[in-house]
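protien #1 (seq + structre)
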Amino acid sequence: MEASKESMSNLETGMIAIIQVFHKYSGHKCNLRKAGLKELINNEMSHFIKKIQDNEVLDELFKDLDQNGDLEIDFKEFMTLIAMVTSACHDLLSPSSQSANLSLSAPVTN
């Protein structure tokens, strides 16, 4: 990637961050196993998803995300999780929502 961070938009920077976080937990095969998914969610998404303590919750989430049944979460399957959580957060943070109690620590400006 040729673009410097200074010239990237907030959205592009966010996309790079998603890719980097996925690779941090997915290892050299670029696939998440259950332990990696749990660690990623608990370490990287704890403000948006309750920490996973129960294996039943992890099993159900993993089963829902593992669309091809190979017992691993690839990047496209991971993006399903990102899209679902982002959509839910959008509903909470939208200006029309009366119950928006969540504020972003770093407002998006452009």
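ok now protien #2
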Amino acid sequence: MKASYIAFCGVVVLLLSEAQVSMAVTCNPTELSSCVSAITSSSPPSQLCCSKIKEQKPCLCQYLRNPTLKKFINTPNARKVATTCGTPFPKC
């Protein structure tokens, strides 16, 4: 019984580790294109925009380090969009 329990735990650990690998985000700033109108105007973000911000959240610091992207992402409107979407703006 003890051996089968240990084997079961091993399988669970393997499955969980594979699940985390498959959930890795590919950082692609064009994924945030659905947010352009909300960031550049006062219009509210769409549901698609919010889902993309949440998806790309691990990449935001990388985008902020890029001088070309920083001028779009590090703005009051971008922070407002992120907050509206329930995604706190990262402290990098």
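Residues 13 and 31 are 31 Å apart (CA to CA).
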